[in-house]
Each structure stands twice: as C-alpha cells, then as structure tokens.
Amino acid sequence: MKKSLLVIIVLGLIIFFTTVFIVDERQQVVILQLGKPVRTITEPGLHFKLPVPFQNAVTFDDRLLEYDVAPEEVLSKDKKTIIVDNYVRWRIMDPLLFLQTVQAIPNAVTRLDDIVYSELRQELGKHNMSEIITETREEIMETVTRASDKSTDEYGIKVVDVRIKRVDLPRENEMSIYARMDAERKRQANKFRSEGEEEAQKIRASTEKDKTIILANAYKESEEIRGEGEAKALEIYANAFNKDVDFYEFTRTLEAYKKIIDTKTTLVLPADSKLFEMLND
Question: What confidence score (pLDDT) does residue 41 get?
Fold first, then answer.
C-alpha cells in the first residue's frame, strides 16, 4: 500500500509539473499539440496543458527588442556614398504567426535586416546628403519605420522605431569632402571680411566727413568770436585813447618794450624814434 501510494504521488507530481506552467509578464506562449498550434497565451499567470508529448509550450519574448544593424553603404540622391549605422526596436505582436513564418528570433533578425536596409536605402536615395545629416533625418526615419512595419506584418512583427546612430563618409571620400568644406568656409570668411572692410570704409569716410564739417564750423565760430573780441578790444583802446592820449601812448609803449626787449636783445634806434625818446628821457 505504501509503495502504491508513493507511486501515485510521484505520478501525480510528474503530471502536475508537466501540465501546469507559469507565463511570465515578459513572455507569450504558443501551445503545440502533436506539432500543430492549438492556442496562444498572452496573459501572464498560471496555465494548464496536456503533458508532453501530447502538448508542449513554445515561449517567445513579449518585451521591446532591439537589433543593432551593421553599418552599410547607402547612395544619396546627390550621388554621395555614406555609411549609415542604425538600429531597430521591434516586438513580436502575433506569436502564432511569428512561429509559422520565421519560427525564432535569429531568423526574424535576418528578415528585419533585409527589410530595414531595403527601406532605408530606398528612402535615403530620395534625399540629398545634407538633408540626411540635418533635421530632415527625423522625418526620413519615420517614413522608414512605417514602411518597415508594414513589410513585417506578415511575420507577426511590429517595427516600433528605426533610428540612425551615425552617418559617416567612406575613408576615400573624407579628405576631398573636408577639403571642399574647408574651401567653402574660407570663401565665406573672405566674403565676410570683404563686406566688413567695405562697411568699415563707409564708416571711416562718414566719420572723416563729420570731422571736417565739425572742424570747419568750429573754426568759423572761433573766427567770429575772435573778430568780435578784436572789435571789442579796438573799441576799448579807442575809448581809452580818447580819454587820455598821453597815458595811452605810454602804456602801449611799455607793452612794446615788454615784447621786444629782453636781456639778450640789443636795439639800434634812430634819434627821433618814439621808443628811443622814452628811454632817453
């Protein structure tokens, strides 16, 4: 009895562990019965099936997967060869269809590689290199993502995103491209310098013109002031002369002495000179 009970318990445990299985939230399962699919399980939790070999479970990943595509050469619309390094984010949307068509992830990656590269090459061929490496790249990749997703529907695969990590030039083209870029930058720099020098000449010419006008007006004004001062001085001298002729002549003579006589000056004057007359007195 004990042996029979033990056998029953062991058989029960074997049947339990071969019929009961857990589906993780990161998984989805296809149940095969004698090699033919009978149902698909996408909900996580505890599930039941017939024991092997009557039924067996094939598990697929339900997470967002990423495939890093090997860099490939692509020809742009303006006939420029570029090396595109991109990646693909994808997931298994229909595990049964996925099993029936590509069966496993390595096979799916091979199909994805062919499809994405084909769509990428076709779309990039419609754009110039300058558009591919600028903000237009976002729109280009959205178009490639939609086209790739449509092409993978028949495999139960959804392409979520296709992105370019980097765009390089072939080594044999790098130097010539860089030389052209350098020449273009120098041309732009020379143009800016020329325009700057032309603008500087205009500013200098305008400044010189303003300077000449200001100096002329200042000279004119100073001459007018000097004329007015001299006229005023003559008026004062005339009034002083009219009041006391002798004193006026005396002061003017002293001013003349002050201007023409110093310790190093020798005067030779005629006897009837006004200057000599005062010194003689």
Answer: 82
